[in-house]
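hiii, so i know i said id send this last week but things got crazy w the move. better late than never?? heres the sequnce for the chain we talked about at the cafe, plus the structure i predicted for it. fair warning i was half asleep when i ran it
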Amino acid sequence: MSRDMLRESGRAQRPPAGLTPRQWDVLRTALSCQPDEVVSASVLAETLGLARQNLREHLLALQAAGWLEYHARPRQAALIMLSSRARALRGGPAPAPQGFPLLGEVAAGPPTLAEQQVEGLITRLDDLLTMRDGDFLLRVRGESMTGLGIFPGDVVVIRPAEVAQNGDLALVLIPGEEAATLKRWQRRGTAVTLHSENPTFEPLRYALAEVRVQGLLVGHVGSVDARRQRA
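okay and structure toks below
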């Protein structure tokens, strides 16, 4: 949308109380730029014909007034996320919930500096994981799966199942326990071995008839705090 069109679209609407005409121009343009409510600061600056430093001053003022969130970090694309107060200016049906921007990929090997692009908004866990109806969450207790990066306090996503294949990470109800355990499943004939992913834990061995599979691991969400506590 061109700058002229953007200004025409909001000409009849007066600036909200407390905003200067220029701040209103910035906010109105942000509202019109992208319907998904995540706006690139560079796109906004180009649309308005403003230098980025000048735009930044207006964005900080709008953020302080509660109209938007301004995310700017070194070597990353500066993003603008509209507040519910700002989205309400559009009128019409209630907007979709706001989320967190997914900014492409990060190198876990040699460092790279790639173009930053917003791939989308993450508003729910199933935006990231292949979850289905019936899947459920459990909080991890114990350290038997730390070799997979699953630490105490992390949350795992489980898909209900009654059968596991060798090598699956399964939620298994075992004799004498009130809760199930998450282990790697290994069956040979009528015997089952449940392997931990931590060498300090011995394998658990049972007759097949003694254990019951309750689900399979879909994925997990971890906290940096749990890793820091171990450092």
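btw The longest strand covers residues 212-221. thought thatd interest u
miss u guys!!
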